[in-house]
Amino acid sequence: MTVTATRTAVEKSAGRVAVSADGSRIPVRRRKLRLGTWLLSILALVIAVIWAFPVYWMVNSSMLSTATLESFTPTFFPVGGSFSNFERVLTPSFFSALAVSVGVTLLSVAVCLTFAFLASIAISRFKFRGRVSFIVTILLIQMLPAEGLFIAQYKMMASFGLLSNVLGLSILYVAAVVPFTIWMLRGFVAGVPAELEEAGMIDGLSRTQAFVRITLPLLAPGLVASGVFAFLQCWNEFTVALVIMENNRTLPLWLRGFVQQSATQAIDWGQVMAASTIVAIPVIIFFVIVQGRMTSGLVAGAVKG
Questions:
Q1: Which end is more exposed in the chain, N or C (fewer Cβ atoms within 10 Å of the end residue's Cβ)?
Q2: What does the buried/exposed string (b/e) look like for 65-88 if buried means 16 or more CB atoms within 10 Å of the residue's CB?
Q3: Can you tell me whether residue 17 is helix, strand or coil?
Q4: C-alpha span between 21 and 190 (Å, rounded)
């Protein structure tokens, strides 16, 4: 018996090694790790399928007829489906709601990022009286229930003549989103050492030039991640728009119209699913464009000691 065979027999008797069918040695610990990896992979796959199935079901149902959707037998694949539901929902009312949502979202995100960026720079790089109180106030504002502000917001917008107005809704969205965006950007700004700007100033740059050329590029992932958060908050918001926008509907309000039928009308779920798919498409396109920057922004600082 060779030395290797003897050692294998000893390890096997001690439970530290197993022998495969072809006679090769497989350490028990490595086999357990491999089994654990497989189990975790299967669990992750199951969770991913559960998470993605509603999205698939929405897209699948959008291409099926109303009779098929009302059948007791579920249809898991759009065999024989069509895009007729999409053709029926692409009406002038959709494009009007799309224009309102795009206008409100872009204006809100631009103003929100500007305010949040300047505020995060101020509280991260400068020491001033009331700085701690300002930070605590931002945190407390996040705890206010939105429902408690509806009456005051409605009266304020009515007094300014901003009901059913893109500017009025944008003001409320900025006020709602900017506190958390400041908190989010504050972490990114604090993660960029001020010594980098000081080194640039030693090399002859002014303070503004050092900030623009050194600090601002490093904050780009944080700005993108914060912009995505603000975009999602404004694009999908429903309750405030329902209170303020009486005659000028955003896309979530337009989508609600499909399920708000009269008592004599049945809900056309094909149109509901097609409209939901159309509303989700701009978000998907936006994520595809910014996903690289967003990922680097979300993990920035994760490996710092």
A1: C
A2: eeebbeeeeebeeeeebeeebbee
A3: strand
A4: 57
